[in-house]
Amino acid sequence: MDCDFKDLLAKHEIDPRTVLVLRHTLKDSLRQVIDGKVFHSLAADHPAVFNAYQQTQPELVENRMKKASYVASFIGHEPGYALFIGLYQRHGQKRKTPSQIRSEPAVQQLEMFGFPPEKVSRLWFDLRLREDFFGQWKGKLVVKWPGKERSWHRFVVPSNLFKISAIHAESLLEQKVLNSYRKWDKQWNQLKLLSDSEREKLNGWRGIYYIFDVSDGKGYVGKASGKENLLGRWMDYAKTGHGGNVKLRGRDPSNFRFSILELIPWDLEEGEVEEIEKGWMLRLRTRTHGLN
Fold first, then answer.
1. CATH number of the domain bearing residue 237
2. Treating both helix axes as pointing N-terminal to C-terminal, what angle do 105-112 and 47-54 enclose, rounded to 10 degrees?
3. Which of 118, 133, 180, 229 can pair with 87 through a Cys bridge, CB separation 3.0 to 4.6 Å?
4. Residue 27 placed within a domain
5. Tell me: the pLDDT tens digits for 177-186?
6. How far is CA 259 from CA 45, 58, 155, 191, in A?
7. Pairing mode of beta strands 153-155, 122-129
8. Spatial separation of the C-alpha atoms in residues 182 and 180, rounded to whole Å
9. Which carries the bigger pLDDT value, residue 239 or residue 159?
10. Structure pTM?
């Protein structure tokens, strides 16, 4: 495709020299605590939270953003390429203390997902999404990233080429529904980011599930049956962290991984469901060496 991102800016009569391009990637230190799918989910379904992530920047980028009228936001989804999220117009900035930044509701959600709290005063940029700028291509438009990967912020100047590599039919941000229950493996903070299609899938399943605490290797077996089903039960964990289970209280739920051991028929009697649950507890030793 012989087209450059500058061509899209020209269609909206935006001077490319006023546009700072950001290619967001998680630092190695963050990758240890935050799944990349969480970051993609924020961009896809939680735009205010994703914007809060980019509204504060290190000093070098602060100085560049002050000179920009627009910020073109991308995610580095693979080496040498960047996935379009949106074009944001800058409406000024204000210096904020760490406590002021952390008081922002979207920032509080970032911390809930595992992002570290702000410790120094920074400029808080008022970035507002231009929904009229190819908003339908969010998560679909891919451009080649010029130069070295380490330089993740650049102005759209004539010397920097942002060649459009592809426009996908489906958003690459969207998590595909896992039709096989055996492949479900969710971090606790991902439960808050389930897409509508994933919620629909869980809402139709009853089953035996497993919670694994990566901090010490202990596990918990539970059942979701009746009207509660897997969606209702997991949303309880998403809200409380422990779901009312005694041995899960006091543990850090950010260490929990959720998977499904077995689906059970809707017409199965409760006593039979309990026997299946007990069988999994026995095989996985969650009563003698786990959290049941």
1. 3.40.1440.10
2. 90
3. 133
4. yes
5. 677 899 899 9
6. 22, 38, 44, 11
7. unpaired
8. 5
9. 239
10. 0.76
Check: CB of residue 195 under 8 Å from CB of residue 43.
no
Containing structural domain, residue 198: 181-284
32 pLDDT more than 60:
no
Q: Look at residues 137, 167, 197 and tell me which one is the last residue of a structural domain.
A: 167
Same domain, 57 and 198: no
Going by C-alpha positions, the residue among 119, 138, 112 that lies closest to residue 34 is: 112
Here the tokens at position 2 are 């012989």
Query: What tokens does 249 get?
Result: 């209280």
- Interval 203-222: pLDDT, tens: 999 999 999 999 999 999 99
Pair (107, 235) in one structural domain: no
The DSSP annotation for the chain comes to: ---BHHHHHHHTT--GGGEEEEEE---HHHHTTS-HHHHHHHHHH-HHHHHHHHSS--HHHHHHHTT-SEEEEEEEEETTEEEEEEEEEEEEEEEE-HHHHHTSHHHHHHHHTTPPPP-S-EEEEEEEE-TTTTGGGTTTEEEEPPS-TT--EEE--TT---BEEEE-SS-TTSPPP--SGGG--EEGGGGGG--HHHHHHHHT--EEEEEEETTTTEEEEEEE-TTSHHHHHHHHHHHHSSTT-GGGTTS-GGGEEEEEEEE--TT--HHHHHHHHHHHHHHHTTTTSS--
Select from 167, 189, 211 the last residue of a domain: 167
Beta bridge partners of 61: none
Judge whether 175 lies within some domain. Answer: no
Asked if the structure places residue 292 within a domain, the reply is no
Residue 228 burial (10 A CB sphere; 0-12, 13-18, 19+): middle
Cβ-contact 203, 228 below 8 angstroms: no
